[in-house]
## 1
Amino acid sequence: MRFAIQDSKRLADRLRWDDLDLSGFEERPLDNDALRCLLYMHDVEFHTACYLRDLLVSPAHVDPDLTSFLSIWAYEELWHGEAIAAVLAAHGESSGGGRVHAMRTNLGAADRIRPLVMLGGSWLAGDNLVALQMAWGAINEMTTQAGYALLGAKAANPLLSTLLKRIMVQEGRHLDFYASQADMRLARSAKARRLTRNALRWLWSPVGSKVMPSDETDFLTSYLFSDAQGIAATRRIDRRIDRLPGLDGLNLASRWFERLS
Ligand SMILES: [Fe+2]
Ligand SMILES: [Fe+2]
């Protein structure tokens, strides 16, 4: 099914949580493990603007449907970061601009040269790189949405669950758009399928893992994805990836998450 840009535009909105009384966390605070996951999610949601920087140096910037979607995506992810920042602030944790600035400042050379790497990839692969970007984006949205669902179940805090469900609705729409673009672009090009399959096979790692300390990525993935619910979610992600042209049998999520168990 094609998820059209008109659907993204019609449904675009900033996340709202003014009706939720976050002082409820004083009565029923989240435990340290849940807060550690939220700190990771906060940092990665806010990092979307930097992912956008890397995406737009490719031929993706030529396609007005993609630039419209990416504008909406970056805006909605910003408000996911803000919502999580509000939860962290309610627990006395550092969040927002100061934390984000410190994180970006410490990223180093690998982050600075990423736009050049993407530019080089664009010269070599042209439009086929966009197919890879769309498939990669779809997989990131799948794992993010699953991560929020698993965190909500583990934390068993109604206030957090309400907020996370609102975020997950938007992640689902991001997933639908990315997957629809990946499906179309992979279906029409054998080169795109080969590039995407090989790049995912050798380079993929969970979203945030290139910018967050590896201890934090390992903690989050093993905390959320190593029990029965997490393993079931992982298999669902892999089955969904299997449905994209040329990507069946990759077992990306299972291979990553089993590495930690
Ligand atoms: Fe998000
Ligand atoms: Fe998203």
## 2
Amino acid sequence: MSNLRRAVLITYPSEEAIKEATSLANTVGYSVERIVKQRHITRSKYGIGRGKAEEVKELVKQLKLEVIIFDEVLKPTQQYHLASLCQIEIVDRERLILEIFERRASTAESRIQIKLAQLRYDMVRAREKVRLAKMGEQPGFFGMGKYDADIYYLDINKRAAVLKKKLEREEKRRDLHRVQRLKAGLSTVSIAGYTSAGKTTLFNILTGESKNTGQGLFTTLSTFTRAMKLNTRKVLISDTVGFISKLPAYMIDAFKSTLHELTHSDLILLVLDISQSIEEMGRKLDSSIHIINELGVPMTKILYVLNKADLIDIDDAFDKSAYLSILDSKKRILPVSAKTGFNVTQLKNLISLLVFPEEEKEDLMSLGEPNESISS
Ligand SMILES: Nc1nc2c(ncn2[C@@H]2O[C@H](COP(=O)(O)OP(=O)(O)OP(=O)(O)O)[C@@H](O)[C@H]2O)c(=O)[nH]1
Ligand SMILES: [Mg+2]
């Protein structure tokens, strides 16, 4: 595509940070022409140091770039200062994620959620602009005076309130479904985890579905539920929206109704990509746990699924799972491959054991042993 918007990306020096930010940028249609790396990108007037900011300004001019992608959530003042210095639009991490969500939202509910999140994004910035306008620092706010800026701010507030009402109605409808399910006596299991961990691939292999999977981030943007057979019993299993780090709390809030599925589940399969470095896994695990805590889900409901075991040496997989379980001995962990089917039968057994403890007393001591061909 030639209509990609040419961007300079400002991010952290780690390879993983660069990869993730580039992938986010590509997903929304930016081509990353240059990468500027900085250890600290949340400090100071411009997010980055003055010298670096000047460097970016030069780059933008020389390469005729159209946008700066800033891989952090910038304070509105920082965003304003950097944009003024470089005379160019800034897309920070928060807006990047919002843009992806906007493109991928397919249900009425997720569209309301995105709109709400966008309004909050604007609201914070409008508040800042009103403040700057009052200090006389930025008299022309979209060509408006102070009074107009106040009105604009109130208007955003009002629209947000209307959307919240709508969202509540959608939530109520969901709750009704949930009650019906409970009446049907079915237990629920949810698949959660960092984006691209392989949740949908796992969902497909467990249910026989063929939902879209993909290398990009946020392939799945709304919850999907299906029945899954476990020996003689049946449970409902849901695939959910992926997590990402540096997600502001209000965005988690906007997605709470989608993620409510997790709050009400009997068991959460927290999927981790085990083919990544232990540091990277740890970082993503932290982000996931943070969001799960925000949702008020008890940690005792989590079963850790270490996916993509086919990509690494099996001993390595067990080392990694051991390492992660050392951090908290109560963790329940199983390496699997959603792609090859490795350990998927064991996973089903474990789900069965955890969801129906009274009926599945027989031991599952051999769980996690590499007794199933990894390439089957
Ligand atoms: N090698 C290998 N690749 C896998 C495995 N599971 C998933 N993948 C790949 O990882 C990528 C992401 O898989 P998805 O199932 O879409 O991941 P997801 O967690 O649903 O991602 P989002 O919906 O975007 O949050 C795809 O390219 C899959 O083919 C696995 O066990 N082994
Ligand atoms: Mg998915």
